[in-house]
Specification:
InterPro entries: HTH_MarR-typ (IPR000835), WH-like_DNA-bd_sf (IPR036388), WH_DNA-bd_sf (IPR036390). Residues 11-143 form the HTH marR-type domain. The protein contains seven helices and three strands. By secondary structure, the chain is mainly α. It has a domain at 19-125: Winged helix-like DNA-binding domain superfamily/Winged helix DNA-binding domain (Arc Repressor Mutant, subunit A, Orthogonal Bundle), CATH 1.10.10. The chain starts with a helix and ends in a 9-residue tail after the last helix.
């Protein structure tokens, strides 16, 4: 019924990561680029899309957020001039999001500092084996919590892919 002492310790450690890491990344990104971590994720997803353009519903999956959350983020990025929305032709109401040249330049300016922070907070805090174990554990947790997201991650994560982060 209750967690063992070891399980409580490990669970508390995970909760501490979940509560502190996003805020640290948000703070750093806001200082450097005026955007939060989710908006940064949207920009990275767009940068990796063909022509730096994506349909909103696809972008929501890529950026791991709801359409509502994405819509708010895109509105903020649009106000900054980093993205543009445009209607898709054809059946149905679909909207595409296009990264502007300004957005691309800003992402290139912000990304190196963000990568330094990710290295400082996560990558450099452990050795290669620990980092691999962390990744494996994270994938298992995602699979238990959101199987569809786990499948999406598995299909878009290629070990040979050159990462932009």
């Amino acid at each position: 019924m209750w967690l063992s002492l070891d399980q409580q310790r490990d669970w508390a450690s995970l909760v501490a990561v979940l509560m502190t890491l996003p805020g640290k990344l948000d703070t750093q990104l806001k200082q450097v680029g005026g955007i939060n971590f989710y908006e940064y994720s949207v920009m990275v997803s767009l940068s990796e899309a063909p022509g730096r353009v994506s349909v909103m519903s696809d972008l929501a999956v890529e950026a791991k957020g709801s359409l509502s959350r994405l819509s708010h983020a895109v509105s903020r990025l649009e106000t900054a001039g980093w993205v543009e929305r445009r209607s898709c032709g054809g059946a149905g109401r679909r909207t595409e999001v296009l990264m502007t040249e300004t957005g691309w330049q800003e992402l290139q300016r912000i990304a190196p500092t963000h990568v330094e922070e990710v290295r400082r907070l996560v990558v450099d805090a452990m050795d290669a084996a620990q980092l691999e174990q962390l990744g494996s554990a994270a994938r298992r947790i995602v699979a238990a919590a959101d199987p569809a997201l786990a499948e999406t991650l598995a299909s878009t994560t290629d070990p040979g892919r050159k990462s932009k982060e």
